[in-house]
Write a structure and sequence with these properties.
Order of helices and strands: EHEEHEHHHEHEEHEEEEEHEEHHEHEEHH
Largest sheet: 9 strands, antiparallel
Helix content: 25-40%
Distance between the termini: 45 Å
Number of helices: 13
CATH class of the largest domain: Alpha Beta
CATH superfamily of the largest domain: ATP-grasp fold, B domain
Number of strands: 17
CATH topology of the largest domain: D-amino Acid Aminotransferase, Chain A, domain 1
Number of domains: 3
CATH architecture of the largest domain: 2-Layer Sandwich
Structural class: alpha+beta
């Protein structure tokens, strides 16, 4: 690997290679093209979301080292938008171009057990968990924790390969349902809310940390998110410092999102790491001076990072495939009747329930007002689907006064 890769800026008119063709890759490509870069991508699906906005799409599997090398040969830097990419493919890329974030970071994060051990060893706060390799060990963990959240060590995005095991007596069935060689069992927590923090770091070490976002899940899929999170400033600063330290410990080159739990006692516990753009920071495209996708391009190209300052609070609500019917997509013009709202669609041809097809973003003078505008747009889009305002706003009113411990 060329030593110059660690310091050489990669200017506009260069070529970015993206492993992954989903909505995160699509929005990364759009940000790169707006900055004057060419973009090539690799994805197994010829109809993937990134296809229409890149110069070339290589159709190949995540483990296709030959195709990955071909992508890198014609790229000045390579990044990824999905953790399914294999380490072999990243290593093949690394022979011809810098890969940011590094394969070493993905190796740590790709496996939940390995990730938990790394966080524990580095001294970052996490909740209690057990590594489970059979139904008997799962029953023991569920008994010890009086129920637990069970997650496959690999995969399991948007609630897949995850089970909330409330009764230890159902352990054997849960183990069969997951069908994994091993899992982690997490002790349930008394949560006040969930937040995430985005941190960007360029090869020269310059680091930029965003304000925390507050996230609300339904059926283990992100339902809505607001930026900035309306939490106590001391708690926000502590969360930002944890994210900064994690990025430094990993020697991050690129962006990383740190998902965290906030307990009712005001504790901060790291949940998971994501070394890529993140659903909870789609709001940054409107809320912040520099959105997450532009910041990713800047960081992997070793260019000066943009400001993460919040210009106006913004909320997003995800649009799932459940909204589509046999007659086609919903009438998005109804949502646009809310002046503060925008509709963002991902151009995915395969519509199915639970799949993220787009999102609505809405701004406001405060995070609460931004969320109200987003909910109103959803209510206009389709009556009865969107969460009632009390679902989010009652939670917010309790969080605002929460203090750090």
């Amino acid at each position: 690997m060329s030593k110059l890769w660690n310091t050489r800026p990669i200017p506009p008119l260069s070529t970015l290679g993206v492993l992954g063709g989903g909505q995160l890759g699509r929005m990364t490509a759009l940000a790169a093209r707006a900055a004057g870069y060419r973009v090539r991508a690799l994805d197994p699906n010829p109809d993937c979301a990134i296809g229409p906005v890149v110069d070339q799409l290589l159709v190949a599997g995540w483990d296709d080292q030959g195709a990955a090398a071909e992508l890198a040969k014609a790229s000045d830097v390579v990044t990824f938008e999905i953790e399914k990419v294999t380490l072999g493919a990243l290593s093949a890329c690394q022979k011809y171009a810098p890969v940011r974030p590094s394969p070493e970071i993905l190796q740590i994060i790709q496996n939940r057990y390995r990730q938990k051990l790394w966080l524990q060893r580095e001294g970052f706060p996490i909740g209690e968990f057990r590594h489970v390799r059979n139904a008997y060990e799962l029953q023991q963990a569920a008994t010890e924790f009086a129920g637990c959240f069970v997650k496959a060590t690999e995969g399991g995005y948007d609630g897949r390969s995850q089970i909330h095991l409330r009764d230890a007596g159902a352990s054997e069935q849960a183990w069969r349902d997951l069908g994994c060689a091993d899992v982690i069992a997490e002790k349930p927590l008394a949560l006040a809310c969930e937040i995430s923090v985005l941190v960007a770091r360029r090869p020269e070490g310059e680091t930029c940390v965003y304000a925390p976002a507050m996230n609300h899940h339904r059926d283990q899929i992100l339902a809505w998110s607001i930026l900035p999170a309306p939490i106590d400033p001391a708690l926000a600063e502590r969360a930002q410092e944890i994210a900064r330290q994690i990025a430094g410990s990993l020697l991050l080159e690129g962006i990383l999102v740190v998902e965290m739990f906030v307990t009712k006692q005001g504790e901060l516990l790291v949940n998971e790491l994501a070394p890529r753009p993140h659903n909870s920071y789609h709001a940054s495209e409107r809320a912040c001076i520099t959105g997450q996708f532009e910041q990713l391009v800047r960081s992997i190209c070793n260019l000066p990072l943009g400001s993460a300052g919040v210009v106006r609070p913004t909320a997003i609500v995800n649009l799932l495939g459940n909204l589509w019917t046999q007659d086609g997509p919903p009438d998005f013009s109804s949502a646009l009747a809310v002046p503060e709202a925008k509709v963002h669609l991902y151009d995915k041809p395969d519509v199915r329930p639970g799949r993220k097809m787009g999102h609505i973003s809405a701004s406001g003078e405060t995070p609460q007002e931004a969320l109200r505008h987003a909910f109103l747009a959803m209510e206009k889009l389709t009556a009865g689907w969107g969460p009632p305002e009390t679902d989010g706003l009652a939670q917010l009113s309790g969080i605002v006064e929460m203090k750090s411990v």
